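Quiz preparation item.
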């Protein structure tokens, strides 16, 4: 199977299900068997998820991608053994980073809901035109990528968390701020955006937000 089939959802689902690490193997870059350069799509998805993991407080080294030929059996075994050793040193997902596991699972589930949106964003705003590993790594480490990531993904991650909370019960701005770790003014900004899109409504009598 082409590594280009490794969708963002596959990676995020694995972490949401509690996997301590995810390894992706693909054919060597610029040697695509299907002439689709799907391995570059896998590389791009990997770099996006690494930024998400880092934002969530997880070690991005829990996700690894390597490119090799079908004849590189010994190399594959060596790389996987090294990766497994590294993951064992990092410890269980979240625990090794000192995170609250329930809170981490909540945030990962919120990110998973954004996958269709992130696929579109990746195609239109985060796709690197130059097909080289160096160009991909340089772009995703740049200030431009950080700015786009904040604008296009991180803000949507917060809104997804808020929507997930409001599915359980209506909440005040202060309650939401406490649960998502933002100050009330930041929450108000997000609530104004979601209200404009008709996703939430403000209950004047209860002084809280609810799903529309």
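Solution:
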């Amino acid at each position: 199977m082409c590594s280009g089939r490794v969708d963002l959802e596959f990676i995020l689902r694995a972490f949401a299900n509690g996997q301590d690490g995810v390894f992706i193997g693909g054919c060597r870059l610029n040697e695509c068997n299907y002439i689709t350069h799907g391995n570059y799509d896998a590389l791009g998805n990997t770099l996006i998820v690494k930024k998400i993991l880092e934002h969530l407080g997880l070690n991005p080294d829990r996700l690894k991608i390597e490119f090799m030929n079908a004849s590189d059996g010994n190399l594959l075994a060596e790389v996987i053994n090294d990766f497994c050793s590294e993951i064992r040193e990092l410890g269980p997902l979240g625990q090794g980073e000192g995170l609250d596991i329930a809170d981490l699972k909540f945030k990962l589930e919120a990110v998973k809901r954004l996958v269709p949106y992130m696929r579109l964003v990746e195609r239109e705003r985060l796709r690197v035109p130059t097909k080289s590993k160096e160009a991909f790594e340089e772009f995703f480490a740049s200030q431009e990528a950080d700015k786009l990531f904040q604008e296009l993904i991180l803000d949507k991650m917060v809104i997804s968390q808020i929507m997930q909370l409001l599915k359980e019960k209506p909440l005040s701005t202060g309650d939401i701020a406490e649960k998502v770790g933002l100050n009330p003014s930041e929450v108000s900004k997000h609530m104004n955006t979601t209200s404009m899109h008709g996703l939430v409504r403000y209950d004047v009598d209860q002084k809280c937000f609810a799903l529309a």
